[in-house]
Write a structure and sequence with these properties.
The complex is a heterodimer of chains A (264) and B (318). With 264 residues, chain A is of the alpha/beta class. Helix content of chain A is 26%, strand content 29%. A 9-stranded mixed sheet of chain A has the order 11-10-9-12-8-1-6-7-13, sandwiched between helices. In chain A, strands 2-5 form a two-stranded antiparallel sheet. A two-stranded antiparallel sheet of chain A has the order 3-4. The N and C termini of chain A lie far apart (58 Å). Chain B is α/β, with parallel strands linked by helices and 318 residues long. The model of chain B has no long low-confidence stretch (mean pLDDT 94). The chains are: A alpha/beta (264), B alpha/beta (318).
């Protein structure tokens, strides 16, 4: 089975975010592979391994990482390779700076199709920096395949069908999807492995194809940023209230507060 | 006037997603509001949508929309859009709606704005970043313009109207029936729903171990009409199920009182609860960002305070 995992290089979410004019500052900022993408990479590796040890289908097929981002995004690709993915594709182009979700999906779909036939595309539910959560659906539509979002468990995978548990607001649905397909996975889907030293060394030798927009037969017009930020303003700040150190009377104080708010 | 559509989700019993009614209330302020609702329960849901301001509701009870994920609904919505040319199509940030909106964006070549918190006019929507500290106004583009709103962005208010219900009959090609729901599981919850409870008690890592969530359940029972939630950290750690998660990913709550117990106040959590009328926080660390939002902040040990609080509440309730 050929599996593609989408990975994104984002500003380190543990550092305070900064604005660059009207968009999130990305350049010259310490970056990491989106922590949410580790679950996607792990899911891809697990499916490949499961098929390799199962009967019938052999372990043939590869896990390919596909990313769009600045040259620094190579770091995110290498990180996924060190976990065990086979190869990478990185689309970098100055024109793509500030791309919206529609353009990103268009570019990723072109890169995935150029990479060759695929059975499954895996992405995180939403990125940690932009969190639109719409990319997997948009990407699937461009690829002309079904998609299942917020997958919290991969129940079974065989050559032609994937069975998954999809998170819903009040429980989950079991969904069977014919391949090829796109899925997005939650942080509950697995426990991502750590990259071993051996994995990190091996990753340096794994192939990563670097593509520009023209390699994908796309023009600047195809990916033009259409969404324009017109204004930034400060939200009204909540007024801070009373902060007290507990001296044994805090519980009574809270109960009084609840009473005053008429909820007890 | 702009023609503003709202895509509404419904249960098979015809219960409309409350977020759709909130958005509809805003839609009728901006233009001529209409709604689309697909799947079992749709015709019943259409009545409610009419009461909240949709002059026309395009509805279909066809099971195909419930049985197969996203593609049939996207196909039908797309053909309705081609036929009726709305200026805006608005969605709630809900599982199925987000999927349909994402696919529709590719079909129409329209950029989709996600996570909006307000609609300023027919051409501009607003979102909040950095935990809600900065508001970003975005000029919408495309025909129609597509926007997804966070739940509780608006207050739902009935208009007293009623809708013309137009039955949708769109043929769904077989190749759009590839992702099939074969089982549905509902995690039974006791007490009120998190997003509707007047009091929400939420726990974080500061509770130290999963067993201590029991204290939150006891407090909820003592207060009555209270629901228990948690942060992403405790959900990811497996202490409580995903359905408890309050925040950017997860549920948005706007209760009368929010109790944050052992929660530091990460951005991801704050966006899901900062709309609460009153916030009470208990945390050992006086530097915790949650205290900046708190109407009443207690620097102290939650595990010591909670049993006392349960007793105090019981006493006051008599």
């Amino acid at each position: 089975m050929n599996i593609v995992v989408c990975v994104k290089h984002i500003p380190d979410p543990n550092l305070p975010a900064e604005m660059d004019g009207k968009t999130l500052k990305r350049e010259g900022v310490q970056g990491v592979m989106d922590p949410g993408d580790e679950f996607g990479v792990e899911a891809g590796l697990q499916i490949k391994e499961r098929l390799a040890t199962g009967d019938g289908e052999s372990g043939e097929g590869e896990v390919t990482l596909v990313s769009m981002g600045p040259a620094a995004a190579m770091e995110a690709v290498r990180r996924g390779l060190s976990m065990g993915a086979d190869k990478g594709v990185l689309v970098s182009d100055d024109v793509l700076k500030g791309s919206d979700a529609l353009a990103t999906a268009k570019v990723l779909s072109a890169a995935i199709q150029k990479n060759g036939a695929f059975d499954l595309v895996i992405a995180g539910v939403e990125s940690t920096d932009g969190y639109t959560g719409t990319l997997p659906g948009t990407l699937a539509e461009f690829l002309g395949v079904p998609h299942v979002s917020t997958v919290k468990e991969i129940v079974s995978a065989d050559g032609g069908t994937l069975k998954v548990n999809r998170q819903t607001a009040d429980g989950y649905h079991v969904v069977e999807v014919g391949l090829p397909a796109v899925i997005s996975v939650t942080a509950g889907v697995n426990e991502p492995r750590y990259a071993s030293f051996k994995g990190i060394m091996a990753a340096k030798k794994k192939p990563v194809e670097q593509l520009s927009l023209s390699d994908l037969d796309l023009s600047g017009d195809d990916v033009a940023v259409k969404q324009e930020v017109t204004e930034l303003s400060k939200a009204e700040e909540r007024e801070g209230g009373e902060i007290i150190e507990d001296d044994g009377s805090a519980a009574a104080k809270i109960a009084d507060f609840l009473k005053e708010a008429k909820v007890i | 006037m702009a023609k503003v559509w709202v895509f509404a989700e419904t249960t098979p019993e015809g219960e409309v997603d409350p977020a759709a009614l909130e958005i509809l209330t805003k839609a009728r302020e901006i233009g001529d509001a209409e709604a689309v609702v697909l799947g079992p329960g749709a015709t019943k849901a259409a009545e409610k949508l009419g009461e909240f301001g949709a002059a026309t509701v395009y509805a279909s009870d066809d099971e195909v929309y419930g049985d197969y994920v996203a593609q049939p609904a996207t196909h039908a919505l797309h053909s309705l859009i081609e036929e009726h040319s709305p200026d805006l199509v608005l969605f709630a940030m809900a599982y199925d709606s987000r999927d349909v909106a994402g696919r529709l964006s590719a079909k129409l070549g329209s950029t989709l704005m996600s996570n909006a918190t307000d609609l300023i006019d027919e051409n501009t929507a607003r979102t909040a970043v950095f935990g809600g500290a900065t508001l970003v106004d975005v000029k919408l583009e495309g025909s129609p313009k597509l926007v997804i709103f966070r739940p509780k962005s608006f207050e739902a208010a009935p208009s007293g109207g009623s809708a013309d219900v137009v039955e949708v009959s769109v043929d769904i090609p077989d190749d759009l029936k590839k992702a099939k729901r074969v089982e549905r599981h509902i995690e039974e919850a006791t007490g009120p729903r998190l997003d509707q409870a007047p009091v929400v008690i939420s726990g974080g890592r500061g509770l130290q171990e999963p067993g201590n969530f029991e204290l939150l359940d006891q407090l909820a029972a003592a207060i009555g009409n209270a629901a228990v939630g948690g942060t992403r950290a405790v959900v990811d750690a497996g202490w409580v199920p995903y359905s408890y998660q309050i925040g950017q990913t997860g549920i948005t709550v706007k209760p009368s009182v929010y109790l944050a117990i052992g929660i530091s106040g990460a951005t991801q959590h704050i966006v899901g609860m900062k709309g609460a009328k009153k916030i009470i926080a208990i945390n050992k660390d006086e530097e915790a960002p949650i205290f900046q939002l708190a109407d009443l902040g207690i620097v102290g040990d939650a595990l010591k305070i909670l049993p006392q609080l349960i007793e105090e509440v019981k006493t006051r309730k008599g």
